[in-house]
Amino acid sequence: MSEKALTLKQSGVRWLWLAIVIFLADIGIKYVVMNNMGYGWANRIEILPFFNLLYVHNYGAAFSFLSDQAGWQRWLFTGIAFVVTGLLT
């Protein structure tokens, strides 16, 4: 076989590491916020006059889309994710 081994840059492994770092940072920030901030608007931290940091839950999809539904939307979006993953592989 005359195929050359892929370099680190060509293989895309560095992007995997970046994704792992971002994922861990996301989990860490959520952990810190959940354990150190009070819930709701009354406990907000004003960063700028138009930008506040506050701890709230979003039970819907994007921007609370379908948040008033009974929970079926979680399974719908999980199914869509599996179908898309299957189509991409």
From TrEMBL:
Pfam families: Peptidase_A8 (PF01252). The keyword Oxidoreductase does not apply. InterPro entries: Peptidase_A8. It comes from the Bacteria. GO terms for molecular function: aspartic-type endopeptidase activity. GO terms for cellular component: membrane. One of its GO terms (biological process) is proteolysis. The keyword Transmembrane helix applies. Keywords: Aspartyl protease, Cell membrane, Hydrolase, Membrane, Protease, Transmembrane, Transmembrane helix. Coiled coil: none annotated. Belongs to the peptidase A8 family. This is Signal peptidase II. The lineage of its organism: Bacteria, Pseudomonadati, Pseudomonadota, Gammaproteobacteria, Vibrionales.
